[in-house]
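STRUCTURE:
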């Protein structure tokens, strides 16, 4: 039999404060708002499938699953889809409001893993859950981008309608201005004809009355 260290994630803040997730080296721990996540967090800023804590080469690591608000270790944000080796006491952040503490617990004995029953059979890799989680995260990101696209389209349509209203108002103002200019031109022409008539009668139109 072999011994594998059991670790925990204790939620320190947010709606799930006080919750503790036991980490199993044989099973990745998904973190997010989805029901299938071992550590389910419903706080704003936590993605559907936000991150994954898994066993890798004799230690636990945390991996960001392309979360929009980010995964943090001791205040430092991981690159999107990046991972970080965890040490006892590390504080993990998920989004803006949720913080959890990583700790090592008791050592739990585990039997050797069963060998494949047939030469062509392969045991499922623990990373399979993480890959499926990443797929779900990509789908959630796609849906969020589609929603943002639709919102931008609606905003653009509203701006175009406002522009058309302003163009119509500008056209009306231009038409009124043209009318005023035409009236002013006609008045100037009438004034010039009056001046010519006065000159024809021997009256200086510019003389004081």
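SEQUENCE:
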């Amino acid at each position: 039999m072999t011994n594998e260290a059991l670790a925990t994630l204790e939620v320190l803040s947010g709606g799930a404060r006080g919750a503790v997730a036991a980490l199993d080296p044989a099973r990745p721990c998904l973190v997010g708002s989805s029901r299938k996540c071992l550590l389910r967090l419903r706080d704003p800023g936590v993605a559907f499938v936000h991150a994954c804590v898994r066993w890798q080469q004799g230690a636990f690591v945390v991996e960001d699953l392309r979360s929009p608000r980010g995964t943090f270790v001791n205040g430092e944000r991981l690159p999107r889809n990046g991972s970080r080796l965890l040490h006892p006491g590390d504080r993990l952040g998920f989004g803006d409001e949720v913080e959890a503490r990583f700790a090592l617990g008791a050592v739990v004995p585990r039997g050797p893993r069963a060998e494949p029953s047939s030469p062509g059979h392969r045991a499922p890799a623990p990373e399979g859950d993480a890959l499926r989680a990443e797929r779900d995260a990509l789908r959630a990101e796609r849906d969020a981008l589609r929603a943002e696209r639709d919102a931008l389209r609606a905003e653009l349509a509203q701006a175009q309608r406002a522009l058309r209203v302003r163009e119509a108002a500008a056209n009306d103002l231009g038409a009124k201005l043209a009318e005023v200019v035409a009236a002013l031109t006609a008045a100037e022409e009438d004034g010039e004809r009056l001046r010519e008539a006065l000159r024809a009668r021997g009256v200086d139109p510019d003389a004081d009355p």
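REMARK: Helices lie at 127-200.
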